[in-house]
Design a protein that fits this description.
342 residues; alpha/beta; Rossmann fold
C-alpha cells in the first residue's frame, strides 16, 4: 500500500515511515522541512512543499494516484512556544491543515489518519481518560488539535471522507534501529531534557510543577514508545475499513465516517517516577530541582486504550525503560545520522 505521510521528515513522521516500510508499505513524504530533517527522507519518495500548497499536493497525487491513505503528522508541537506564538500555531496547524484536507478531498483521497493529542482532555478524577472523557484543551497547541478534529469531522460528513483522529499521549524514545529520533536542539519534553542533563548539555533537570493533585505532586503522563506509536499508525491504515465496520456494529449507529482513538500505554507515570526510572537506566543520579509550572501545563492524564485494541488490534508493548534506553542510545549516534548540525 502507498501512504502519504505529511511531516514525514519529523521525529514521529519519520518513525511512522520506517514502520510502514518494515510492514511492506511505501510512504510518500510531504514536508516543508521547516522543522523536519531532510536526512530522514533519504531513499524515500519525498516532496519538499508546504501542506497548504494545493498545486504541490495535486502534483503529488498526479504522480502517485495509487496512494490509498494519508497520515497527517505535520504540525508545530511545542506547548510553551504555542503560548508565546499563538498566531504561528493557528496558522500552521489549523489554517494549513484545513487547506490540506480540502486538497485531499479534491484529489480523491478519502482515508485520513490525523495526529491529534491527548492534551485536548480535561483533568478527570483518577486521571485516566477514555475517548468519551470531557475535553478542555489548555494551551494554544492543544486548541489547534481540538479545532482540527472538528474540521476533519465536518469534512468527513460533508465530503464523503472517512477520518480517524489518533490522540497521542507522550511519545518517547527513538526508532529501535536508530534510523531516526528526536533532534530538537533545546527540547521541552521530559526525556529530551533528562538526556541533555545526563550528557552534560544542561546543568540541571527542572521538575516543573510540584503542586498538582497527584500521588507525589508532580504531573502525571502516559509515556508511549515512539515505535509503538508508529506501529499504531500502521494498524490504523491496514485495518481502516475494518475499524469503521466494528465501530458501527458496536455503537449501533450509522455514522461511520469519523472516529477518535486514544494511543497510550494505559499506565500513569508521574514526573518523579519517570526521573527515577531514567536514573535507573542511566545508572546514576542526575542533578534535579523543583520548579514552578510552565505556561500551558496541566496535571495530565493517562489513557484507557481499550478502543485501540478493539478496533485496530493495537496495544503498546514497549516499557518506558526501553524508551529511555533508546533515547540515550540515539543521543550517542544522532550526529553520525544527521551530521553535526542538529
Amino acid at each position: 500500500m502507498k501512504v502519504l505521510v505529511t511531516g514525514g521528515a519529523g521525529y514521529i513522521g519519520s518513525t511512522i515511515c520506517s514502520a510502514l516500510e518494515d510492514s511492506g508499505h511505501t510512504p510518500v513524504i510531504l514536508d516543508s522541512l521547516v522543522t523536519g530533517r531532510e536526512e530522514f527522507t533519504r531513499g524515500r519518495i519525498f516532496y519538499k512543499a508546504d501542506i497548504a500548497d494545493r498545486a504541490a499536493v495535486e502534483k503529488l497525487f498526479a504522480e502517485h494516484p495509487d496512494i490509498e491513505c494519508t497520515i497527517h503528522c505535520a504540525a508545530l508541537i511545542l506547548v510553551p512556544e504555542s503560548v508565546a506564538k499563538p498566531y504561528e500555531y493557528y496558522m500552521s496547524n489549523v489554517a494549513k491543515s484545513t487547506e490540506l484536507f480540502y486538497s485531499l478531498h479534491q484529489c480523491g483521497c478519502k482515508k485520513i489518519v490525523f495526529s491529534s493529542s491527548a492534551s485536548v482532555y480535561d483533568v478527570v478524577p483518577g486521571f485516566m481518560v477514555t475517548e468519551e472523557s470531557p475535553l478542555r484543551p489548555g494551551s494554544p497547541y492543544a486548541r489547534t488539535k481540538y479545532m482540527m478534529e472538528m474540521v476533519l469531522q465536518d469534512f468527513c460528513r460533508a465530503y464523503g471522507i472517512r477520518g480517524i483522529a489518533l490522540r497521542y499521549f507522550n511519545p518517547i524514545g527513538a526508532d529501535p534501529k536508530m534510523r531516526s529520533g528526536m533532534f530538537i536542539e533545546d527540547p521541552s519534553h521530559i526525556l529530551g531534557r533528562l538526556v541533555d542533563v545526563a550528557n552534560g548539555r544542561s546543568e540541571v533537570f527542572r521538575i516543573t510543577g510540584t503542586d498538582y493533585p497527584t500521588r507525589d505532586g508532580t504531573g502525571i503522563r502516559d509515556y508511549l514508545h515512539v515505535w509503538d506509536l508508529a506501529l499504531a499508525h500502521v494498524a490504523a491504515v491496514e485495518r481502516f475499513d475494518e475499524a469503521f465496520g466494528r465501530s458501527v456494529k458496536e455503537s449501533g449507529t450509522a455514522d461511520g465516517s469519523y472516529m477518535v482513538i486514544n494511543l497510550g500505554s494505559g499506565n500513569g507515570v508521574t514526573v518523579r517516577e519517570f526521573v527515577a526510572a531514567f536514573e535507573k537506566v542511566h545508572g546514576k543520579p542526575i542533578n534535579k530541582v523543583d520548579a514552578p509550572r510552565r505556561p500551558g501545563d496541566a496535571a495530565g492524564a493517562y489513557a484507557n486504550a481499550d478502543k485501540a485494541r478493539k478496533l485496530i488490534g493495537w496495544k503498546a508493548a514497549l516499557p518506558i525503560e526501553q524508551g529511555i534506553a533508546d533515547a540515550l542510545k540515539w543521543a550517542k549516534v544522532k550526529d553520525s545520522v544527521l551530521g553535526k548540525k542538529s
